[in-house]
Amino acid sequence: MPAFPEAAARATRDATLRANLRHATHTIRDKRARAVAELADWAELRAAGKAIKDHTLRHLDCYLVRLEEAVTAAGGTVHWAADADEANAIVTRLVRATGEREVVKVKSMATQEIGLNEALAAAGITAYETDLAELIVQLGDDRPSHILVPAIHRNRAEIREIFAGRMASWGRPAPEGLTDTPADLAEAARLHLREKFLRARVAVSGANFMVAETGTLVVVESEGNGRMCLTLPDTLISVVGIEKVVPAWRDLEVFLQLLPRSSTAERMNPYTSLWTGTTPGDGPSDYLVLLDNGRTAALADEVGRQALRCIRCSACLNVCPVYERAGGHAYGSVYPGPIGAILTPQLRGTTGRVEASLPFASSLCGACYEVCPVAIDIPEVLVHLRERVAGQRGHPLERAAMAAAGYVLDHPGLLRAAERAAARARRFLPRRLPGPGRAWTDTRDLPDPPAEPFRDWWRRNRR
Question: Which residues are registered as beta bridge partners of 218?
Fold first, then answer.
């Protein structure tokens, strides 16, 4: 993937993409605003969600051990994966042990993050996505572009073409005479997926929350495909990031109010599935893979760790002016939008071209922070990560200029002299910066220094 500026430059020239994104994000954001306005205690719920997440992250080691003990006591099996390769190897081994060569999947950001579908394919195992939007993406040889609605960049006509042209190669073909009405498209997906639900013996899932107190895993979804995957197969393998744990059952009271209203603008989630371990002869065998993959490194950053509060609601994407114009693919990550701009560089590091560009993929308008249901201060983390990237990749002249500016700002006498010199020379100052500063002034003018420094004005008028 190219760095964000290059990818975004191409995406913003796609008129169809921009129209699809604008219609979808504005519709979702307006519905969310109405749903949130119904609750008089939304601010208190938001503060509670933040507090629970912060407390959990501060004591994550204790709660993860408690979770493992509870899952094991309930009959489940826990595996720990330090990175994507280890997680993929564990899941592949578990699937092979069943003798099966296909799995059905509940929508899972963690499995997309580690490239599980590709790893399973390399081992001769086919993974079938069962979420409608993920199915569209898979059939279209595409990539997700939104956390909640992965196929948000596709309109109905494009989806009809994908179903008509590709469903047959993945299983049951699309019905003859398929139209692009939502009801027809949904029915085609139901018929296509039903045979997979009834045939598959292994399912792979993520989880929205894990309860340390009881070992319970929670999946919230709105189509019912998750319920089918979680109950019909003989084996269930869950791949979940370690930050998804919450201490106690009662904590779900907060998050099951915050998440539906922030994501789908619903008062209550249509399907909330909870399972605790396994019982012989009742339900699938239960395996839990706890995924680190950079999360411990993010946890060590006192400013950046707040990104681990994220409950994947996607509210920040729907209000972001940059995402609305560039789309999710420009971010080069399974996590697009404002949350992706701070999460991806922390999980992957900031040395790559894509990762180093993401903290700058923002106008810092703050709309993302205002809608975040767990109060992640995304602009604060963006600025923090920009500082990190500049320290690694900044131009030598730029670093020297920043060091000189810092020295002047630390010495009031020098600052006063510099302000007076700038005021006297204001007519001769350039409109564009030279050298590495040229890119900054390609899209903005340098501000004119005031004719008189504020210090001098104050001394003259406020004796």
Answer: 209, 274
